[in-house]
Design a protein that fits this description.
Chain lengths: ~120, ~110
């Protein structure tokens, strides 16, 4: 079975500092990995995905994520945090061998960027 | 929130009542999904449909029902058998194949009176 873990419920970072939101996954084969962001009382917005190829994936709003197969991780990063980045972030995974199955989401990490 | 419309935004249910949440998409996507979001629990899959007139149970289907009579529409009914329905409900859709991105609606917040 596929699963994803976000070990931190909350991450606090000062504006202008780099941020990292952690994600680890469990999939038998090579995974499809995604990051989404959710603002209060809204749906999820897609940020970026990893399918294959370059381990460093760049996405929306200056975010990027690094796929690390040996550590089964897909951490979300941004070089310089903005107050407007404060939101709930979800990592998700799909095992491509499972056909078009739905994404499996982590429990989310709340990012708070302090001015 | 793109081409996925969820309505209503807020919904209140009385004891013993069934309520239906609407989800419509104009993205021509084959697959549609319903998730339930509770604080600290992330998104849990209720039902999903990969094609018209077909759907599968997710992890927490008990107390819910769905239909998929049209490609554009995937309504969710919260039945009286669902004893703890208070939550934020999210509908999503995606193309059928490949490493497809799921696009989400703005959600419906359901509360019990």
């Amino acid at each position: 079975a596929q699963s994803v873990a976000q070990p931190e419920d909350q991450v606090n970072v000062a504006e202008g500092n780099p941020l990292t939101v952690k994600c680890t996954y469990s999939v038998s084969g090579n995974p499809y990995l995604f990051w989404y962001v959710q603002y209060p009382n809204r749906g999820l917005q897609f940020l970026l995905k990893y399918i294959t190829g370059d381990n460093l994936v760049k996405g929306s709003y200056g975010f990027e994520a690094e796929f690390n197969k040996s550590q089964t991780s897909f951490h979300l990063k941004k070089p310089s945090a903005l107050v407007s980045d404060s939101a709930l972030y979800f990592c998700a995974v799909r095992d491509p061998r499972g056909g078009n199955t739905p994404l499996v989401f982590g429990k989310g990490t709340r990012l708070s960027v302090i001015a | 929130d793109g081409g996925i419309t969820q309505s209503p935004k807020y919904l209140f249910r009385k004891e013993g009542q069934n309520v239906t949440l609407s989800c419509e998409q104009n993205l021509n996507h084959d697959a549609m999904y319903w998730y339930r979001q509770d604080p600290g629990q992330g998104l849990r899959l209720i039902y999903y449909s990969q094609i018209v007139n077909d759907f599968q149970k997710g992890d927490i289907a008990e107390g819910y029902s769905v239909s998929r009579e049209k490609k554009e529409s995937f309504p969710l009914t919260v039945t009286s058998a669902q004893k703890n329905p208070t939550a934020f409900y999210l509908c999503a859709s995606s193309i059928q194949t490949g490493a497809n991105i799921q696009y989400f609606g703005a959600g419906t917040r359901l509360s019990v009176l």
